[in-house]
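>> Question from a student workshop board

For tomorrow's exercise we were told to take the sequence and the ligand below, predict the bound structure, and bring the output to class. My setup keeps failing. Could a helper post the expected result so I can at least see what it should look like? The ligand is zinc ion.
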Amino acid sequence: MHEVSLVRSLLEQVDRIVAEQGGRAAVEVRVEIGPLSGVEPLLVKAAFTQFASDCTLIIDEVPLTARCQSCNTAFELENFRFVCPHCDSREISVIRGDAIRLMSVTVDVPEDGDVQQALPTELVSVETGLCTTSERR
Ligand SMILES: [Zn+2]
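>> Workshop helper replied:
Here is what the output should look like for this input. Compare the format with yours to find the bug.
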């Protein structure tokens, strides 16, 4: 299943961010999934729950957005119609919605100096904008 390997690489990125922050674990992960990402949000959620059951996954489903090369208009693609609504140009590039992106990770970071103590901890939210895949169907 494609989503399983995807979630694995997603969690590797999350682990790296947790380590960078000196945290114990990620408590919340937010991803953005577009219609051309080639992944099924429900399957991503299922795989994520399997690997990281104590972390909350938030999935934002974003529309497919493109920018016209001719007139520089950014617009949402409807019905996968790859034509600029402003000037009818077909020279457009997808700028959003063709990937699954790791948008932010909220890390549970223990306060300085007291590693024995379970609490209190500080939650650090890291904006990433990392692109996990740009695979197209
Ligand atoms: Zn245009």
